[in-house]
Amino acid sequence: MTIAQDTLSLIGNTPLVRLAGPSAAAGCDIFGKCEYANPGASVKDRAALFIVRDAEERGALRPGGTIVEGTAGNTGIGLALVANACGYKTIIVMPDTQSREKMDTLRALGAELVLVPPAPFANPGHFVHTSRRIAEETPGAVWANQFDNIANRKAHVIGTAVEIWEQMEHRIDGFTCAAGTGGTIAGVGMGLKAFDPDVTIALTDPYGAALFHYFAHGELRAEGSSVAEGIGQGRITANLDGAPIDTQFRMSDAAADYWVQRLLREEGLCLGLSSGINVAGAVALGRQLGPGKRIVTILCDTGFRYLSSLYNADWRASKGFAPLDAALVEPSEAAL
User: Fold this and answer.
1) Which residues carry out catalysis?
2) What are the angstrom distances between the C-alpha of 301 and each of 41, 199, 298, 328?
3) Residues in domain Tryptophan synthase beta chain-like PALP (predicted)?
4) What residue ranges define each of the domains in the chain, with the CATH number in brackets?
5) Which of 84, 187, 229, 284 would suit a FRET pair with 257, their CA atoms being 20 to 30 Å apart?
């Protein structure tokens, strides 16, 4: 073991684990990148660190400054941790529909939390636009702009992708995950393609997002809905622009929940619904590529961040989810 030189050095270099149940279901090897092992317990710590370092290098962020961001929660948590370590303040704007655990965590980290009602991106009250206005009005502040700041993508091109390539001993056939900002799938895709152009990069989109239809048919169009937090996109962000997507899947919340519950019951992994979406997509990609293939996906964050929602019996009943102790039957969507 090595000793980290500072707390920010703890971001990245997360473990990779073979997932037994998904591997058996796919007929090949499915691996999960354990991003819940980051200090802020999510993949968004990586983007947060690169966004802050980029702002410092550009001279936009100076000692005592403030970082402002609109986020579904995890990027805000990552930014607050990085800001604390670097001596900055944070103002986080978040839809008021996100989990209570995310809100409580941000407040515990000392961030100023601004909650807004959910709104379409075209609405000036959307959390992203609100955060931009606050940054413009706050002296010494920078707007992180995670959706269109390609420092986000860079974190995965030179970080996550390189780690995966080395951990997989240079033998990987496919990678898939969902898109929120697009930084993870675009950055990992670009990084892996630089090592091996034949690696298949697949988008796994939740219902309610528009990217599945875009990559399949060339038109941004959403269908259905999802309660998964932090993923799903209705536009081509700067981070998504040029993403090397070879194929695409769309997965329901039921398919995601099936894998969340199986991984918890059978393998002791407590994950969020976005990780379930990713695992469902990895199984679909594995079935498509065939036996003997090696597929990697992202385990985005910890399920402990959703104890009041996904792991709460009343919440599940209100959203039409089966009880936590119900028998598990794989939904047909997971086999698409």
Assistant:
1) 44
2) 6, 25, 9, 23
3) 10-301
4) 7-38+156-330 (3.40.50.1100), 43-148 (3.40.50.1100)
5) 187
